Amino acid sequence: MRDSALLKVDQLCVSYGGVQAVRGISLEIRAGEITALLGANGAGKSSTLLSIVGSVKPKAGSVTFGGSDVTGLTPDALVRRGIALIPEGGRVFARQTVEQNLRLGAYAVADDTVYRQRLDQVLTLFPRLAERRTQVAGTLSGGERQMLAIGRALMSCPRLLLVDEPSLGLSPLLVETVFDTLASLNRSGTSILLVEQNMAQALEVAARAYVMQSGAIVMHGSAQEISSSDQVRQAYLGL
Prior knowledge:
Distance between the termini: 40 Å
CATH class: Alpha Beta
Order of helices and strands: EEEHEEHEHHHHEHEHEEHH
Largest sheet: 6 strands, mixed
Oligomer: single chain
Shape: globular
Strand content: 25-35%
Radius of gyration: 17 Å
Strand order of the largest sheet: 6-7-8-3-9-10
Number of domains: 1
CATH architecture: 3-Layer(aba) Sandwich
CATH topology: Rossmann fold
Number of strands: 10
Number of helices: 10
């Protein structure tokens, strides 16, 4: 049977100075699925993402993408291979316009025709961005910045989206909009690793989930199994 895992993390360890943020975790992202990585603030979720995309060098362990070892590759090399990160808080280039931000997301695209096609696709997905195409990104609302961060990542036409805390700082209505967008992207074929503190919201769209606590995976299973687990609630509450 063909291995359906698009991304595999094996025994990953990440340290900052003498502090071990990630303690030998293993997980996999299956092609065509949304997989959630859950946990309270400080559990090691963002450090895991940053090590996957090459922003932080792991102390030990490996990352495999599409069957190839990509451990230690630079972020730009991983973008070219099909991995894109949507950072926490919808970070954008505040002094650049909406379209300039999107252009930066397509920095690896040399063909202007391909760039225009991708731009049209993103602006169709986010009509609000089309309306604010020439507006400076720093003047956008929080929800619009999150849309722009997603759109910028999509400009590289990723096979895998890593999404870090998309609900952070957004109103409940905007959170619904962002998660609906992620679900729509997944239905169109994009695999997603979703890092999120909002367990209920994440499990509504995810097929499977891993729960982190103090740098370790304490449980994994289907979204239904995780959502009904008392152990997960205890991990979230730090009990």
